[in-house]
Design a protein that fits this description.
InterPro entries: ADH-like_N (IPR013154), ER (IPR020843), GroES-like_sf (IPR011032), NAD(P)-bd_dom_sf (IPR036291), Zn-ADH-like_protein (IPR051397). GO terms for molecular function: oxidoreductase activity. The structure is a single chain. By secondary structure, the chain is α/β, with parallel strands linked by helices. The chain folds into two domains: 138 residues, Quinone Oxidoreductase, Chain A, domain 1, CATH 3.90.180.10; 130 residues, NAD(P)-binding Rossmann-like Domain (Rossmann fold, 3-Layer(aba) Sandwich), CATH 3.40.50.720. Helix 2 packs across helix 3 and helix 2 crosses helix 8. The longest helix has 21 residues. The chain binds NADP nicotinamide-adenine-dinucleotide phosphate. The site of NADP nicotinamide-adenine-dinucleotide phosphate has 26 residues, from helix 1, helix 2, helix 3 and helix 9. The site of NADP nicotinamide-adenine-dinucleotide phosphate (NAP) has 26 residues, from helix 1, helix 2, helix 3 and helix 9.
Length: 313
């Protein structure tokens, strides 16, 4: 099978295509013939050696999201059969024609749905729904979403509006993304370089972090809460939390899915339901062949994507 790995940290150019033996599924794992592979900002960061927790051991295969067909089951796996079509998170890399996925985090793709849609809708939608349900907007509470045009962010904008949030503010790096976001229902679009982001909000879903984190905390009204789900790191302005009685909650999909399996399953069903009824649209920015993984990373690093970037083996 073909796979893409990096043998040294660097830009997209260090990604190289290799031939390799098929991996063997261990206990609790599925072997999946990939039909669509999600490309994310954390993947690009890992290739540069600045992923969460520092650099990966080299060489490494990036990738954490797949959709495709189950071709083998590890020992003790129940609930799936060879031939099933699934989408899943992966923790052992996914830029390959065959990838290992934990069965506990895999979910079925409905008949008639494409693998590309599964990756764009479910993988990013799970993050958006987890962030939104953790924040639990109530009544007339307002929500600001940073990285709002990203794969995750553009679904969070739509999901917040579907939940009845009266004021959804979409924050992005470039004004060129405004039309896309208004088209998805955002009430206001702001860019990071604007001096003011408008009236304070009750909730921030922070998909960017880093230097933007203090700004995102400052955008909160008194008593507001921020869900920190990004890979950008950053320094928490602790005094601002104290002075404004604000809270920050961290969120990783890995833990959310493991600790809340029922909610994770419910969110999966909800995402497909909303997509089938035409209420939720997962935008696919581009689909590229696996061998063009470097080009996919260039798009993400240029901060140019509107929605999901997908590789097709
Ligand atoms: N907690 C979890 O388990 C989990 C799971 C998946 C994703 N995430 C996080 O969710 C966020 C969005 O992920 P995604 O996969 O939806 O993103 P994506 O589709 O890969 O989009 C990346 C977008 O992030 C923005 N961005 C902010 N800082 C950037 C930087 N330094 N370099 C490049 N782009 C930057 C850019 O838009 P703007 O310039 O408009 O900001 C860019 O278009 C990421 O921080 C990711 O780590 C978290």
């Amino acid at each position: 099978m073909r796979r893409v790995r990096f043998h040294a940290y660097g830009g997209p150019e260090v990604l190289c295509v290799e031939e390799a033996e098929s991996p063997v599924p261990g206990p609790g794992e599925l072997l999946v013939r990939t039909e669509a592979i999600g490309v994310t900002l954390p993947c690009a960061r890992r290739v540069r050696g600045d992923g969460k927790g520092g650099g990966d051991p080299l060489p490494t295969m990036p990738g954490g999201e797949i959709a495709g067909e189950v071709v083998a089951l590890g020992p003790d796996v129940t609930g799936f059969a060879v031939g099933d079509r699934v989408t899943s998170l992966t923790f052992k890399g996914s830029y390959a024609e065959l990838a290992l996925a934990p069965a506990a985090l895999a979910s079925a793709i409905p008949d008639g749905a494409s693998a590309v849609e599964a990756v764009a809708l479910v993988r990013s939608g799970q993050v958006a729904l987890a962030a939104l349900s953790t924040a639990a907007p109530a009544g007339r509470e307002s929500v600001l979403i940073t990285g709002a045009a990203s794969a995750t962010g553009h679904l969070a904008v739509q999901l917040a509006k579907l939940q009845g949030v009266p004021r959804v503010v979409a924050a992005v790096g470039s004004a060129a993304k405004a039309e896309f976001l208004y088209g998805l229902g955002a009430d206001e679009v702001v860019t990071y370089d604007q001096v003011s982001w408008g009236e304070p909000v009750d909730i921030v879903l922070d998909g960017v972090g880093g230097e933007l984190l203090p700004r995102a905390v400052a955008a909160l009204a008194e008593g507001g809460r921020l869900i920190f789900f990004n890979s950008g790191g950053g320094t928490v302005p602790a005094f601002e939390l104290l002075a404004g009685s604000k809270t920050i909650t961290g969120l990783t999909m890995r833990r959310f899915a493991t600790v809340n399996p029922e909610r994770y399953a419910r969110h999966h069903a909800r995402l497909w339901e909303l997509a089938a009824s035409g209420q939720l649209r997962a935008a696919v920015h581009t689909e590229l062949p696996l061998a063009e993984a470097a080009k996919a990373h260039e798009i993400i690093e240029a901060r140019a994507n509107l929605g999901k970037v997908v590789l097709r083996p």
